[in-house]
Amino acid sequence: MSTAPETLGFQAEVRELLNLMIHSLYSHREIFLRELISNASDANDKLRFLALSDPALLGQDPELAIWIENDPKAGTLTIRDNGIGMSREEAISHLGTIAKSGTAEFFKRLTGDQQKDAQLIGQFGVGFYSSFIVADRVEVLTRRADAPPAAAVRWQSTADGQFTVETIERAERGTSVVLHLKEDAKEFADPFRLRALVRRYSDHIAFAVRMRKEGAATLDHEVVNQAQALWTRPRAEISDEEYRDLYRHIAHDGADPLAWSHNRVEGKREYTSLLYLPSRAPFDLWQREAAHGLKLYVRRVFIMDNAEQFLPLYLRFIKGIVDSSDLPLNVSRELLQQDREVEAMRSALTRRALELLARLAGEEPEKYQQFWREFARVLKEGLSEDPGNRERLLPLMRYASTANTGNEESVSLADYVGRMRPEQGRIYYVVAENLEAARESPHLELLRQKGVEVLLMGDRVDEWVMGHVTEFEGKRFKDVSRGELELGGLADQAERARIDEERKENKALLKRFKDALGERVLEVRVSERLRDSPACLVRGEGELSASLRRALSAAGQSLPADKPVLELNVTHPLVRHMDALQDAEAFGELALLLYDQATLTEEGQVANPADFGRRLNKLLVRLVGQASAV
Asked: If you average pLDDT over residues 424-443, what whole number do you get?
C-alpha cells in the first residue's frame, strides 16, 4: 500500500552540484549513461555477494542483468537492474546527500573546463547526479531484495532543491532510474545512439546489458555488450581502449591510466590480476585510513571493494582487480588477514606493481615523471615500511640535484652514481623544508665549489625515509648537513692542512663564541664546508632535525633536548671583524645574531623572534649612527 509523498530538501552541496550538472557540463552529456550503468553493475555485484550466504535473495530471478528501455514518444529513458535495491532510508540517504567526505574537494577541483570537470563525476561518488545533465525530472523506483513488494520506494526530483519519497508496491526487486529527457536531450532516446554509447563506455561490464531488439515489435531483448569479465580474456584479444574503459569503471576516474599490468598466475595458486597506475592522485591520498585496495573476485564472483590486504599501504594509489580461484567464496576481511595464500599473493602483487613502475620509468620516462609528481611522497614511504623491496624501490626514486637548474625531480640514483667523480665515495644529499631552501643551503658551498653533485630533498617525508636507507649500489648515503663531510679522496692534503691550521689559530675565537652562546650549542668549531656564509648549524648523524622534532612534539611525543654544533667560516669578513672586537657586549650581541641567522637558515624560524628583532634593530641603529658620523 502506497503512502503520501514526503517532500525533503537536498543537502546544500547537492544543490550546488545539481546546478553545475544542469548549467555547465554540456559537451560531455553522454557520461550520464556510463555512470548509471556502472551503478547498476555495482548493485548487481552486491546482491550476488549477499546471495552467497542467503540464496533466497535471488528468488525466482537468479540471472542478474541490466536493462535499458527507451521510449522516444514519451521522451523517457530507463536504466533498470535486478540487484540489491534500496530501502526508503537508503534512498533518502544515498540520493539526497553526498556521503563521501570529498564533496568540498570536488568543487575545489573544478576548473571551468567542461571536459576536465566531466572527468571528476564518479570519482567523488556523484555519478547519479549526472542524470540531471539530460533530464529535467528523475524518478527512481526501487525495492530491496530482502523487502516485500509493499515496501518499495519511489524517489523523484526536478533538481529544484527538493525531492519527494513515498512507499509504493513494486513486484520487481532492484532499481529503475527513469529519466524524463530534456527537449535538447531527446537524442538519448534513440536506440542506435544508446547502443553505440553502451559499446563505447560499458562493453566491459560483466553483466549483460539488454535492449529491445532493433525493429522488433515484441518485448524480446538482446545483449548489446560483451558481458564478459574483461580480465578473464587473453591479453592479445583486449584492446587498449577496452583496458582504459575498465579502468574508468573500477576507479571512477575519467582520466586515462598511465599504464597497466594484466597477468594470470597458474600452478600452486591460481589467480588473475589487473593492476592500473592512475595518472592523478585521488583527493584522499594522504588519508592513510581512507578506503583503498583492489576489487576482489573469487571465480569471477565479486566479493568486496577495497581489499587492502593485497598491496602494502605505500601502493594505495594502485587500482585494479584480483580474481582468485583458490579463496573461499565466503571469505571476509578478517580471514584475508590470516590467510597464507593471501600473504603469498600480496608479495607477488607488490613485486608486479613495482615491475610496472620500473617498466614505465624505463620505457616512458615522461609518463613516469607525471606519476612522480603525483605520487612521489607515498611511494617514498615504502623505503622505510618495506625493507624487503627496498632494492626494487631505490631505482624508482627521483630527486632534484645541484647538477640541474630548477626543481624538477628527475635525477635517478643510477644517474647520480654514473656521474660520480672517481675519487668520490659517498652519495651526497641535503634535506630542507623545501627544494628552494635545499638548493640555497650553506652546507653545499664546498661541494659546489668542487663541482660535486648533491641530491636535493624537500619533502616532509624525506628525513624520516632517509633514516632507513644506508646505501645504493655499494655507495653510502651522506647527509651534508650532519657530522663531518667525509670527503675522502675529494679532499687534498693542502685543504686538510689549512683546516688544521685554522683550528689551532682560532682556539680563542671559538671559545669566545661558545661562552657567548652558552648552552644553545654543543660546541663551536671551524667549518670545512663553508665558503661564502659566515656560519651554519650542524647536527650529529643520529639527531633529528628541528622540523621533525616539531612534528613529533606536535604529535605529543616527549623528546630530549638537543644541541647543534655551530660551525664558523673563520675567513669570512664578519667573523674576522668580530675577532678584532674588544667590546665584550657587542661581541656577544653579534654572536647571538649570527647564531639566530644560522638557525633561521637551517630551521626556518628562531626560538625568540622578538629577541632576534631587537638585536637586529640595535645593530642597524649602530650602523646608521656610524654612517651619519661619516
From this structure: 93
Residues 485 and 527 in one domain: no
The answer to whether residues 78 and 176 touch, using CB atoms and an 8 Å cutoff, is yes
Residues 69, 127 within the same domain: yes
Q: Provide the 3-class DSSP secondary structure of residue 116.
A: helix
Which residues share a beta bridge with 165?
6, 155
The region that residue 246 occupies, defined by phi over 0 for left and psi between -120 and 50 for alpha, beta otherwise, is alpha
Of 82-96, 103-117, 144-158, 295-309, which gets the smallest average pLDDT? Answer: 103-117
Higher pLDDT, 227 or 620: 620
Domain boundary among 194, 211, 228: 228
Residues 514 and 483 occupy one common structural domain: no
Strand partners, 70: 77
Q: What is the DSSP secondary-structure string of 83-102?
A: SS---HHHHHHHHHS--STT
- The residues facing 153 across adjacent strands are 142, 167
What DSSP line would sit under 126-159, residue for residue?
-GGGGGGGTEEEEEEEEE-TTS-GGGEEEEEE-S
Q: What is the pLDDT of residues 315-326, one digit of tens each?
A: 999 999 999 988
Mean pLDDT of 497-522: 93
**Residue 151 belongs to a domain:** yes
| Residue 288, SS3 per DSSP | coil
Least confident piece of the model among 17-26, 124-133, 198-207: 17-26
Stretch 341-346: mean pLDDT, rounded?
Answer: 90
CATH assignment at residue 522? 1.20.120.790
Q: Which domain holds residue 525?
A: 493-629
Cell representation of residue 397: 626514486
How many structural domains comprise the chain?
4
32 pLDDT band (50/70/90 cuts)? confident
Give CA torsion, residues 450, 451, 454, 458, to 10 deg.
Answer: 100
Evaluate whether residue 374 is within a structural domain. no
Find how far residue 443's CA is from the centre of its chain: 32
Mean pLDDT (the chain, rounded): 86
Q: Residues 278-296: pLDDT tens digits? A: 999 887 777 777 778 898 8
CATH code where residue 461 lies = 3.40.50.11260
pLDDT for the residue 597: 92
Question: Is there a contact between 291 and 306 (Cβ–Cβ < 8 Å)?
Answer: yes
Please say whether the beta carbons of 306 and 293 come within 8 A: yes
* Residue 316 covered by a domain: yes
Q: Does a structural domain hold residue 369?
A: no
Find the mean pLDDT for residues 504-520: 94
- Residues 555-568, mean pLDDT to the nearest whole number: 80
**Residue 162 contacts residue 12 (beta carbons within 8 Å):** no
28 and 142 in a single domain? The answer is yes
3-state SS assignment for residue 248: helix
- Half-sphere exposure (Cβ direction) of 415: Cα atoms closer than 13 Å: 18
Q: Can you tell me the distance from the alpha carbon of 176 to that of 179, in angstroms, rounded to the nearest whole number?
A: 10
With left for phi above 0 and alpha for psi between -120 and 50, is residue 233 left, alpha or beta?
A: beta
DSSP 216: -
Same domain for 170 and 86: yes
Residues in the chain: 630
